[in-house]
Give the backbone structure.
Amino acid sequence: MIKKLRNNEDKTLLGWVLIFFLAFVWGLSFILVKKIVSNFSALELGAGRIFIAGLALSPWAISNLKNFPKAKTTPLLFSGLLGYLIPAIIFGIVGSKLNSSLAGTLNATTPIFVLLMGGLFFSKKITGNQVFGIIIGFVGSLLLILSGGNTKLDFSNPYTLLVLSATVMYGLNANIVGHFLSTVKPIVISSFSLVFVGIIAFVILLFTDFFGKIFLPENHLLLIYFLFLGAINSGLAAVLYNYVLQITSPVFASSVTYLIPIVATGAGIFDGEKIGFWHYFGMAIILVGIYILNRRKTPGNKV
């Protein structure tokens, strides 16, 4: 897909280029989710975008059937569930409950959980510097949970915890790909993972009114949003993210979430969302924590 890179500098440069692209694509997803949930349920949104993603990548899965790594079936399935299907449904649930900027900022805790899941379940070494970064990041997350995206503290916002549960899954998925699928081509990982969960998503959609609504004239714009979320946001982006995982490391790849809050906040403000002091402060604390967590990290070395 991309020519072989000669050294770590090439990998780092390409990694950052792809991360900026992914940040833009994924940052826009929060506002698109908010638009879609006005006419579709969270289940229809989550399953719909993953079904479209699986459909978009199915030609590559079919063309790679001879190269399918049967021994990797379980991690591929778990990657699809934890990295795509379940989080997609979760973000569908919170789409109408949280500001796009708040959801995008909470998503920036992903590197923290990449590190934690790696240390807890994949025997990855965590340094004192990284522990300090984790603590700072959690403080920022707590501020966002308490603020609820408003100008004053609100102790009754459970939807922020749902977003954090999705970032835990992202953390597990990054480690699964880095630990079990490092020798598998990114297009193979993404196509088979999304086809697996795309089939599950299709079955789920059969029990909803998704196919009855998606082609209605009044939903044509939402269909475009679905196609973007599925084919680009979940399909193409999955291939690129898995490629970044392989040429750098799980923690470096998850650095994309540093930039997502900026795009999500910009899109939210453009759409008329209001955010207050505690949101900005919590976002700043999270980004400081993630910077500390990753600042001594050399991208060429696996974490």
Notes: The chain has one domain: 8-294.
